[in-house]
């Protein structure tokens, strides 16, 4: 991202000394020579401070032009959906309109009129109801789909709030439902307007929203569902009709906004019978980018509302022009009029026939390219024959012996001038690497053939590389990334942001590094010379997998209660359910800790004695721990994901009392954890999981746990550490006397068995089953119930100080 530029500090600005030159520069006043003979050609370009003096216009223009020539060629940029070709006639008109501020309706009434014509044409293209008995639909131009989506989201939120207010109900917790593959503008909209994001996660085989899962998530606080007509990742059209029909069937008052950023100008021409637009009664608003398949240069977008009912009055401002009120709903006041004019030109110049011809051509070219890639063995992930956007998304065939990946292919193509992105799929299926080519209007068959030839050459070049040759090539292209132009432009203050989907899932950040060589003791009251023992304390007994063992390279050591120490290769970490004041006081303040939000708040608010390296995870948020200090090509990595957990059943009197009691030490909120032990190549975000451990934490078998097998569908959970014991508060004895206040806060044997049936781990180890006098369900109960269920070969029982050894696959 380069939009949010960081202002360099004095020590980051290089001094522009010319002492290294032995020949003196040309006379500063000599401007008779051409640009390259002037002193400007040998001066650094002004970068940080505005120059004191003017520069001749032909010099300024040439210098900027020369610099921009180092940008990629937009026509070869196959990553972008954005228009790169318009006819000369309209380019001329657009440049003549640069000086028109679109918002000045009074001065430029014809530009405003042109926008209104575009709104009408686009709304009708989307089958807006135009029945004279109904109210007029409405719409507006925007800078792009992002602004359009912000407006659409605001309108849904306001409408929902108004309805809740009228019913005298709480309107403080709106939520919106969407696919995890949404474009980042949806996350921004939800974040900026304080709306809870509810995601339907993609899987390794489904990259679009699951209509049933989406509608199942609707509750009284849902402002709407977003459905995408042409996802950014694979270009697939989401099944808007299925969502609509389920909402109608269940009689739910929940609107749909269709994000047709790319598909809005494709589907009406290629799949006119596909019902995704205002023909569906629950679709209340649609956005489309004029600058994508609308065939206009960036930036123009459009948003249309079915009727004023879905665009609450308080969001609209009236601006008076030529004696008539013009209603306005935008985020920005000023913007140029040229792009709206450009859109009108395309609509009337091409007409439906022209758009259909262009969309048909590029759909055919995209099908051809997909079939050629398929012949080369590529796995095609996008749709063909107009069932999705005209783009091809694919991955390399599965082949464990291949040394290169999609990112290497992208680099090879870049060396041949083509910009073809390689990327990882949306959160939850981000292990999937893929590549994508967007077929735009100016990508003719001739260009397609050239690309295919270069693609074949790229694969041939990579195929002949053996491992050591490829490693050299890789470090060459990674070092290319070290070029200042490619370095992170993110201001240091924002690097650790954890609110975006990417931030939360650790796709690009949310990363901790630990150096096992540091080896400091975890406690601070030991002498400085003390170091962590290299090995775990000797175990009383060592247990192995009940049916398949051999080549173990990792261990879990059961300390007691819920405390375990994991030891993998040369790093160790400890898992505890809580620690007391004494332990808290003794721990080193910079010890990396991953915990709940609640615990983080406590640990980091201790005035001068706060912990300094605490990461908090809500359910399904993720952090990656990089184990530094090895030169190996596969560095050990640990991925930790928060899992849901609840130990106070909802709506119990006790829950309410507990809330009141929090300040004086009530039961704090809890989490479970998924630990993925794995490896990745240095300097990459690769992660390949070699062993997956689910730690249930102090939870009951609540509905929220159902989400775990869904999210990990198709991914094996090797080990489950189940907190059992049926912990009852107050203790079982007092509890019987104090019903209904007594409650169980961890699973008993019966729930433990149900948890095994829900999570289906390969092996389960019960922990947290004895200790204080609060355990109502002893381990024996669990042993009996497991035997009765015929699951003895799925459970390993560990006593305190016993160890279970397992294998992390590399
Ligand atoms: C599905 C989708 N929605 C929204 C956007 C944002 O659109 P814009 O770039 O017009 O703001 C994009 C951009 O790629 C997109 O693909």
UniProtKB/TrEMBL annotation:
<dbReference type="InterPro" id="IPR002129">
    <property type="entry name" value="PyrdxlP-dep_de-COase"/>
</dbReference>
<dbReference type="Pfam" id="PF12706">
    <property type="entry name" value="Lactamase_B_2"/>
</dbReference>
<keyword id="KW-0456">Lyase</keyword>
<dbReference type="InterPro" id="IPR015421">
    <property type="entry name" value="PyrdxlP-dep_Trfase_major"/>
</dbReference>
<dbReference type="Pfam" id="PF00282">
    <property type="entry name" value="Pyridoxal_deC"/>
</dbReference>
<feature type="compositionally biased region" description="Basic and acidic residues">
    <location>
        <begin position="512"/>
        <end position="523"/>
    </location>
</feature>
<dbReference type="InterPro" id="IPR010107">
    <property type="entry name" value="Glutamate_decarboxylase"/>
</dbReference>
<dbReference type="InterPro" id="IPR001279">
    <property type="entry name" value="Metallo-B-lactamas"/>
</dbReference>
<feature type="domain" description="Metallo-beta-lactamase">
    <location>
        <begin position="577"/>
        <end position="769"/>
    </location>
</feature>
<keyword id="KW-0210">Decarboxylase</keyword>
<feature type="modified residue" description="N6-(pyridoxal phosphate)lysine">
    <location>
        <position position="292"/>
    </location>
</feature>
<comment type="similarity">
    <text>Belongs to the group II decarboxylase family.</text>
</comment>
<feature type="region of interest" description="Disordered">
    <location>
        <begin position="501"/>
        <end position="547"/>
    </location>
</feature>
<dbReference type="GO" id="GO:0004351">
    <property type="term" value="F:glutamate decarboxylase activity"/>
</dbReference>
<dbReference type="GO" id="GO:0005829">
    <property type="term" value="C:cytosol"/>
</dbReference>
<dbReference type="GO" id="GO:0006538">
    <property type="term" value="P:L-glutamate catabolic process"/>
</dbReference>
<protein>
    <recommendedName>
        <fullName>Glutamate decarboxylase</fullName>
        <ecNumber>4.1.1.15</ecNumber>
    </recommendedName>
</protein>
<dbReference type="InterPro" id="IPR015424">
    <property type="entry name" value="PyrdxlP-dep_Trfase"/>
</dbReference>
<dbReference type="GO" id="GO:0030170">
    <property type="term" value="F:pyridoxal phosphate binding"/>
</dbReference>
<keyword id="KW-0663">Pyridoxal phosphate</keyword>
<dbReference type="InterPro" id="IPR036866">
    <property type="entry name" value="RibonucZ/Hydroxyglut_hydro"/>
</dbReference>
